[in-house]
Amino acid sequence: MRDTIFCVFSVLTTLVLTIISLRYVKDFYLLSFFYSFQVHLAAAAAAASVAAFLIKRHWYALLTLGVSLILAVHGVVMAREFAEPAVDQNRPALFKLMSFNIENDNFANGGDIADMVIASGADVVSILEAEPLLSELPRLLKTYPYYIGCGVGMQECDTLVLSKRPLIEPRIRNLGLLWRNRLTISTIDFDGQKVNFLAAHLTKPYYDEFHGLEIEDLAEIIPSLPGPLVLAGDFNTSILAPDVQYLMRSQGLGTVSLEPATWPIAAGAFGIPIDHVFSRAPLRLKSVRRIENSFGSNHFGLMAEFAVDP
């Protein structure tokens, strides 16, 4: 009986470790969901290896434990690779941003979300799957008179960017080949400091090769926008995904040392960050925090503050 239980633990652990290790050989889109959970799965495999060793003292359990710990540690290292040095908290914030995928059928909470947005103090608000806020636009525009999306620049209401300051040359682009109008590009002047602002909504990474094509589009667009830049939105994958790692490295993007988990809601702080706020120098992220109330969405929203290096 002990041998059977040990065998089951060993087979399952080996399968998990093999799946998350394939990223080092080939970025295969069907496994991208598992890549995002590399640290979680490696930690679970380590616990299973310890359990297997307690059941039966065997070298194979020690081997899987060692591999699990290596994969978990490397996952943490990869997540921290793009962390920017902390900004002095005494440095005043240049502006405040909210980014939130509110879920497109979340109509019951549209009014409460609008109340939260108005009271947030954010200078710029990026709402994805924004249909529930369409009926709330008249009162939102009293606080945020400048916007793009939901009838302005696109007929769809997937992306809505609201701003207290004028949007300079706002435009909308397609990303990849699957969905239309999922990237908004604009420039906002904050007291003489112009910042390029991109709000993106990417496809789920296991939908064929579409997510990778969207990343490639972003990698072509970002270099055409000189100066400080913000890229925020729902990437549907964590920073551990190989294509997101490529984007961060190739475009010199940075983030905070510990991104807040935004999905799944039920996991709370133990979930993964699939909604991101990235910046490019000389713009720096001063802080990113999770909006603790999901307001019925299947994502948590994010609030970020930015500063500019002298």
UniProtKB/TrEMBL annotation:
Pfam families the record matches: Exo_endo_phos
Parts of the chain that traverse the membrane: 5-25, 37-55, 60-79
Signal peptide as annotated in the record: none
Protein name according to UniProt: Endonuclease/exonuclease/phosphatase (EEP) superfamily protein YafD
Record-linked InterPro entries: Endo/exonu/phosph_ase_sf, Endo/exonuclease/phosphatase
GO MF assignments: endonuclease activity; exonuclease activity
Keyword terms, alphabetized: Endonuclease, Exonuclease, Hydrolase, Membrane, Nuclease, Transmembrane, Transmembrane helix
Superkingdom of the organism of origin: Bacteria
The UniProt record lists the keyword Nuclease: yes
Domain Endonuclease/exonuclease/phosphatase positions: 98-293
